[in-house]
Design brief:
With 147 residues, this protein is of the alpha+beta class. It has one domain. It is 28% helix and 27% strand. It contains 2 helices and 6 strands, in the order H-H-E-E-E-E-E-E. The strands form 2 sheets. The protein has a 4-stranded antiparallel sheet, with helices on one face. A two-stranded antiparallel ribbon has the order 3-4. The protein is elongated, with a radius of gyration of 23 Å.
Length: 147
């Protein structure tokens, strides 16, 4: 009896003490440390986020009942162009956004092109192009939010 009990304890200790590895994929690789470029991108996202969310919500309102959220860390700046040369303040920005619902469930991938300039009528930001790139399946327990 004593040997069986000790054997059981040994098996329990060995199996619970083993490191468990996860093979979950990180869908949004995050930077390992802060940089000046990352700080500028984060500030830009704070300014552009209301415009990004408005465009994304308009597109997805046709297929989803629930309001989407676009988190700044789910937006990537893919291209920046100066329209009028060095030190000009007229830009064309291309972004890729991953809108989410609920507990960070991504519903798609979208490309947005914005024109940013102090001389634009009605504000400094104008949506030039919206392109839906991917549609992601919603988990079964979130299907009630699909129209």
């Amino acid at each position: 009896m004593n040997k069986r009990f000790m054997g059981l304890i040994l098996v329990v200790v060995m199996t619970t003490g083993l490191p468990l590895t996860s093979h979950a994929e990180n869908t949004s690789p995050s930077p390992k440390r802060d940089s000046t470029e990352l700080q500028y991108q984060d500030m830009l996202m704070i300014v552009l986020l209301p415009h990004i969310e408005a465009a994304v919500r308009e597109h997805y309102s046709k297929s989803l009942k629930e309001q989407l959220i676009v988190y700044p860390y789910y937006v990537d700046v893919t291209e920046v162009k100066r329209v009028n040369g060095f030190r000009g303040f007229h830009f064309i920005l291309t972004l890729e956004a991953h809108p989410t619902v609920g507990p960070h469930i991504t519903v798609g991938k979208d490309r947005l092109v914005f024109e940013v300039a102090p001389t634009l009528p009605g504000g400094m930001v104008k949506l030039v192009e919206f392109q839906h790139l991917e549609t992601h399946e919603v988990p079964p327990h979130w299907q009630d939010m699909v129209k």
